[in-house]
Amino acid sequence: MSSAPGIAIEDLSVVFKTGNGSLTALQDVSFDIAPRSFLSVVGPSGCGKSTLLKILSGVLQPSKGRILFDGRPVDKSKIQGQVGYVFQRALLLPWRTALQNVILTMEVARRDMSKAQREQEARRWLEIAGLKGFENRYPHELSGGMQQRVSICRALAFQPKILLMDEPFAALDEITRETLQEELLSLWAQTETTVVFITHSIPEAVLLSEQIVVMSARPGSVLERIDVPFARPRDEATREKPEFAALAGRVRGLLRHSTSTAAAVSEEA
Amino acid sequence: MYRLTITAGQILVFVVFFLAWELIVDLLHIKPVILPAPSRIAEVAWANHELLLRNTWPTFIAISLGFLWAVATGFLIAVGIAYSKIIRDLTYPFLVTAQILPKIAFAPLFLIWFGFGLMPKVVIAALIAFFPVVINTAKGLTSVDSELLQYMDSLGASSWEKFEKISLPWAMPDFFAALKISITLAIVGAVVGEFVAAGEGLGYVINASNISLDTELMFAAIVCLSVLGVLMFLTIVLFERLLIPGGQQEGGVQATM
Q1: With contacts defined as CB-CB under 8 Å, which chain A residues touch B152?
Q2: A131 touches chain B (CB under 8 A)
Q3: Residue A101 domain-assigned?
């Protein structure tokens, strides 16, 4: 598929009906995402980050607002088939091998590819992700980190315009997480995909992103957008820079502030 | 090594069972009309092997037809239940109630309805084998991880693709669990059918030798029926092994979380 569009999110609000009234998950959220960039969203629990991803993946219709790809508004049906998704759980199909799991997305979203092309592409991705030789293993025969690598390959293999990642490394141990962060960057470098990455980890957001969107507690809205200036490729050395710690500190300060404000508001209520 | 020892031990349990049976019959001088020894049953079975084989065939046909009928209709109804809230809400209380009923008790009635021969056997077998298929398969189809279905939605998958690529394979372990229950129930159903409404089949042989107090032949027929049942059960296990990879235990994706 063609190059990634610039994405604009305009005035997005989501209100859920609940038993006694309604719950505003997102309120007037607006921001742009540059083509081929890497944007992270951080915010306290329950700030509607996952709701935002559901809208961007075409699973959920917002109550208000719209999403534009290259200046053109897109609805649910137009978004479907253009986004890759990686969850906290690898969510692989246990009855399919690693290779067949990667092929899944192409079977559904890339009808233009022949069977042989799909398989070739899946093998290529698994090789880049360091999983050569594991193509015919079933998910239960792979470690947690390997399963998540397969899941990332599956999301990238059909060349989506956007890759949505919902805390993909949260369930992994520290060392595996850091390895996968760097691997994700090198996998992403091979694509034209725009990444929207949700995380609780501030260092993770700073290492990976071009931009960080900091969100407030419920109802979720954008507190601030922060540019991350470090040159790519980023690696272990990037983590050691003093500017890295300074930027992480700034994000942490914003989050602290928003959480304590939210707590004060809920105490008043 | 452990595996091998256990297998040997498992075989030993069978051997001990039959040896104990043989010994007890011998030591207590139990009359063959009450309980024949295993060796005596084997002799009688061999002497009557033509009669037994001739009567195994109609029983096999009745079990197979009843079972396949139950599986086909049970599967279709399970899909209806899984995908339509109206069908689910309307039929569920009826199905649960029907499952509790002692369906075997209807056997004599089927003699009146369907006459003598193959039909009543097949109907009883199908009737009691049907419910586990419906309930288990519907459970499997409705327990699919909702995040997986959302994932398919985000790819723009059609309803058919979601069914064929996700829900159906997801439900396979539950479906096969149901088949294993159903095949044993179909055997019971077919034999009861033969007790009340048949002139051939192993159930008929058991019933006829009971009336003539030929306990030895009765046991020989029971052995035949047991072997038939085990073989049919193992056929299903074989298909299960072929179709479901080792990692997909009952309950779906848990292994990969």
Answers
A1: 108
A2: no
A3: yes
ipTM above 0.90, yes or no: no
Distance CA B216, CA B35 (A): 8
Residue of B153, B245, B256 lying closest to A90 (CB–CB): B256
Q: Is residue A18 classed exposed, middle or buried when 0-12, 13-18 and 19+ CB atoms within 10 A define those classes?
A: exposed
The domain tally of chain A equals: 1
- Best of A97, A104, A134, A146 to mutate (most B CBs within 10 Å, chain B): A104
B246–A140 CB contact, under 8 Å: yes
Structural domain range at position A137: 92-159
> Are A80 and B155 within 8 A, CB to CB?
yes
Instruction: Please list the pLDDT of chain A residue by residue as tens digits (269 residues).
Output: 445 458 888 888 888 888 778 888 888 888 888 888 899 999 887 778 888 888 888 778 888 888 888 778 877 777 778 888 898 888 999 999 999 999 999 999 888 889 999 999 999 999 888 889 999 999 999 998 899 999 999 998 888 888 999 988 888 888 888 888 888 888 888 888 899 999 888 988 998 998 999 888 878 888 888 888 888 888 888 888 888 888 889 888 888 877 666 555 554 43
Question: Is B155 close to A54, i.e. CB distance below 8 A?
Answer: no
Q: Is B155–A147 a contact, with Cβ atoms under 8 angstroms apart? A: no
Angle among Cα B237, B238, B242 to the nearest 5 degrees reads 115
> How far is Cα A130 from Cα A268, in angstroms, rounded to an integer?
53
CATH of B35-256, one of 3.60.150.10, 2.60.40.10, 3.40.50.150, 1.10.3720.10: 1.10.3720.10
